[in-house]
Description:
The chain is of the alpha/beta class. 48% of the residues lie in helices and 12% in strands.
Amino acid sequence: MNQSRFLQGRRIAPSPITAKTTIVELIESSFQAYNAARLREGAQLFSERMLGDEVTVGLTLTGALTPAGLGISSIIPLIEAGFVDWIISTGANLYHDAHFGLGLAMHRGNPQISDVVLRDEGVVRIYDIFFDYDVLLSTDSFFREIIRSEEFQREMSTAEFHYLCGKYVAERERVLGLQNQSLLAAAYRCGVPVYTSSPGDSSIGMNVAAMELQGGKLRLNPSADVNETAAIVLSAKRNGGKSGIFICGGGSPKNFALQTEPQIQEVLGIEEKGHDYFLQLTDARPDTGGLSGATPSEAVSWGKIDPDQLPGTVVCYLDTTVALPLIAAYAFAKHKPRPLKRLYDKRSALMDLLKSEYKRSERR
C-alpha cells in the first residue's frame, strides 16, 4: 500500500523514563506532541542551527525572569558560552538582576498570602517571589550612587549605560565574594551589548529621572539603540552570516529586536531579506493581538523574517520559566561553547557599515 505523504513523520514510540534518563533523551524521546514537541523543535533549532559559528544570536527578555532566578540558572551560562551575542530586555529584568549582584535576597513565597499582610510586613511580592522592601531601596541607592559619577554625565545608548552599570555590579560582586550572580556583570565581562527598548519603564529609569532633577546630565538616546541594533543585524547578515532571534516572552523587546530588519529595509532602504532564525517562548495568542506582527508567518509580511527561512522558525506556547532552562540544558549537552563575538567592542565598526550602506541608499 502507498503510504500517505502525511505519514512521513517519525513514529511516536518514546523510551520509558528511568532514573538514568538524560535531559537530551527526555527532550528527544518524550517530548512528542503538542507544546512538548514545539519545545523539542525549539531546542533542536537553537542547538543545531542558531548556534552555528556564522549566526549572530539576539535574546529578548520580557516578564519577571531574573527575579525567578533565570539570570543565574540560564542566561549567564548562555552568555559565557557564547550562545548569546546581544540582548534586549525590559528594564525591570535588569533592575531585579542587580539585586543578585548586590547580594540581596529573593525568596520563594505563597501567592495566596494577603498582599495587605505582606505590605504591613514590609514584603514585596512578584507572584510567588517575595523580598524585603529594603531590597528596592538598596538597589535604588546603588543606581543613584553610580549614576552620579562623571562617566555617566553625557548622552549614550542604553548599551553604553548598561555596560557601565555592569562594570560597577561586577565590582560589587568581587567585593562581596560573589560569582556569576548578575547578567549585567556577565554581559560586561563578555562584551555582550544589552539594550532596553523602553528605558523609562523601570525602576532604573525612575532613578535616572530622579538624578535629572538633581542636575544630572545622563540622557539615554533611543535613536542610538535603534541604529545600533540594526547595525548588529546588518553586519551579521553580510559576508554570508545569519541572524537568529530568541524571544523569551513578547512585549516591546520582542518588537525592538524584530524591527531591526524593517529599519534596514523599509526605512534605510538597504537591501536585506529578514532574520534567518526565529524562536519564541510565549503564552500569548495572535487572535487577541498579543502576538501582533510577531508570529513567524505574519512577521514575513513586515520583512522581519526571511520568507525562505520559515522552516527555521518555532513558536512554543509555554511559560519561559519552564522552557528556557530546558532549552539551555539541551544546548549545553549538544553544542560546545562558541568564541565570544564581543559585539559591544565593535559597535563603532558596525555603525560605520550601517552608515556606509545607508549613504548609498535611495531613501536618503
